[in-house]
Fold this protein.
Amino acid sequence: MKDEFAFINMIKPREYKQSTLVMGIGDDAAVYRPSKGMREVICLDTMIEGIHFTKETLSPEQIGQKALAINISDLAAMGAIPRYYLVSVAIPSSWSDTELKAIYQGMSSLSDRYEMDLIGGDTVSAKESLVLTVTAIGQVEEGVEFFRSQAKPGDTIFVTGTIGSSAAGLALLLKHGRSGKYSDSEKQLVILHQEPEPQVIAGRLFASKCTRMALNDISDGLASESHEIAEASGVSLYINEESIPLHNALLDTVDSVSKRVEYALNGGEDFQLIGTVSSTEFDELIKDALKKGIVLTPIGEVREKAEQLVYIVREGSEEPLAKNGYNHFK
Ligand code: ADP
Ligand code: MG
């Protein structure tokens, strides 16, 4: 990249969608008005070339799209409406202007759908790897508090969508790359890894219906996310292995049952939601969700704190489940 200012000018939105925005890109900081009765929700996630993606696993558009999607997913897990985002990019010389532009196009393809505005960021150079950091800002009604500390004994544990597909897609990509020859089912898994859809509609439905819910997005696999809920809530989670919903493409592609389960428990990056809610509320919720085309699947039950935080129930017997989802410091 020759000129930082030309670059900022190129990625600067031509118009903004949010009516509360006062100042977008082009000053020292962005300014927007708070909304009555709403709380601000803010999160940040970083994607690093060589760790979270390579040019072989994601196209430049998909890198941008995914960097924003994983942040929107965190907003969804708080029941929030996405509003704004900021982007910091550290650029090594191995990345062309065309590729950088494509990263931003990937982000705007997603932000257009969620009516989010890009309101700022930072541009710096890097030695070797591209580093992309996105901050997302959303809003949620006063009183909606979907914290992981809110699971209670007797709650139903549920997930949205299907689990494990992203990890299976990544395994394919690591073997054959983006331009590999894939069957239709394999292609579906690859796309689920590359272009995860954040569960905003589900999060907003929960916010409109539920008073208490423990909610997490599944970035690190079911094992890790369920440990976080159990730990924060001081309870134990019992997950029925056979209840975990798997995508047909995963069933088609991966024959080994234990491999499928491993993808679901330890794989991560599905960006679906895992929640716990009172079982009476869940019975209503599952119907309301279906009307919006969202499939909720009950996968287990919250009980009083036991010796271990999470158990997997398999053919009637309960085994402790280790928290070995993907861990950066392992
Ligand atoms: P400052 O020196 O005040 O930090 P900059 O030159 O870094 O200003 O940025 C100018 C404007 O462009 C600011 O509004 C900033 O938020 C925005 N900006 C800079 N880099 C990016 C980027 N990579 N993506 C989006 N907005 C950016
Ligand atoms: Mg700056």
Q: What stands out?
A: The chain is about 35% helix and 25% strand. Residues 122 surround magnesium ion (ligand 2) (CB under 6 Å).
